[in-house]
Amino acid sequence: MKRVFLSIAILLFSFASMAQIDVTWGQRFYNIIESCEDAQIVMEDHDGYYMWYLLNEYEGAGEFKLNYYMARIDRDKNVQKIYKMDFGHSSFKIEQTWRSGELIGFVLSRVSEDKAVEKKGSSRKNKQAQQIKTGKANLYYQFFHTKDMRLVGEKPIKFKSYNYFSIEGQKPYLFNFSENKSKLAFGFLTTDTSGKGVNVEIYDDQMRLLWEKPHKLNISNPGYVIKDIAVSNDGKRSLLAINSFSTSKKKIYTDGKTHLIWINEFEERRHEEQLDKAWATDIKCAFGFEEDYLVAGYYSTSTDKPNLAVGAFSFIYDHRRGFKKNSSTLEFKEYETDEDINEKSGLPYPSDMVATVDHLYPMVGGNCIMVGEQKFASKVVPPARRGDLPTGEDANFYRDIIITNIDKTGFVSGSSYIPKRQKTYRGSDQFNSYALTKDRYGIYLMFNDHQANYDDVSFWPVRNYDSDKSRTQVNFVQIYNDGSWRWHEAYNTKINKMPFYKTLFLTFEKEILFLGHYQDNNVIGSVGTR
């Protein structure tokens, strides 16, 4: 255990030089008396900031209703005005938010999901069989006028209605913003007599359709998941990232392939790659600032733990001719193994973790920074024999954040871990995982953890954070554009009982705004980055 402590202390060498940073607070939100179901700080103007939030409010007679609100917040982080946003029905869900001049745009959804069915030809014995979800989906948009503090128009405008299918592990449709958030890319999954495909649709920030193009999937492996979509800042090019794999009973994991599709309004380029004695576990795609494009992610080499990420990889392509310019892999350097975990501690085992790629961001230096997280969803296991008790538990574990730097040539130059330990039983994960905000020069993260895991300047994991609001330590991490990072303790419950809620916003003055939950109230806080 001493070896593990030393390695973790070295990993977090910056702890030693960082004290608690200054946090300033506004006044409490006067109409929020419970935790938000959802919230996002979305915009800044000369007068202040704007945040929408979702409350599950008691309507009387035992009934609750989900209501959306927009708050205008002044420069001192105090609430000036609150507007209840009535989209016409409580079934509307905000999917995406962005700024367009003095307007805030919303993409809203209403989805009716059919009963899940297994893929044709599968059987209970075939554990690799993919489940397919089907249903009907409607997408709408509506704008909010910040000066007038009102919704524009009488009701949301429907712009897409379709019957969808979604393979297990895949969303009903793909979405992404361009790097500067001026363009929106949608990928709608389709299936008909001619096969499966993706309809790519590109919109500007006023929700005007710029162009659309259907793409027919041509994947050699029987199993696949469409993982990501990207769009260039000018809106003229798009990318699709696809992970394919074997679904046979005797699965050959090294048959796994990574596919990247480059699309514009008139033509396509198809790239297919296969790692040497390894396979991709998760991927993202992006356009770099020099317009070259890449696909990157995590890979595994263990057939016993096929979803255990052991390293990062990338493939980068020339934007003019489409040829592969470089490929790169780099193994992770683990600081903790299963043998280091005390089985009575309740901490997750490293080998159980599934690393997901959450973001792939181009930076001003031409490099890209990939941000991911280790997660594990445990389930109750029924007893094998009558009379035995079930084992396991229904819980979500969140472990380390992974930071990977990919230089402008496509070379994976390094990966590092930002450690944390979090766990949630059944209920909401609103205080777990992490939140992120960014510009072209840096990325900023904030997350909750248990106080007991921090011993002065070192990280010594002994407990999972489970939204115990009286024992919260809130950490703030600044990631520089070269992939290096610096850890700060923002605050802990020796000062107040306030866990951080998952929304961050980077202001014009390089200040970070966030939402904290204080006892039975919510309040805006801020930290400086300079």
TrEMBL record:
Q: What is this protein called?
A: Uncharacterized protein
Q: Which organism is it from?
A: bioreactor metagenome
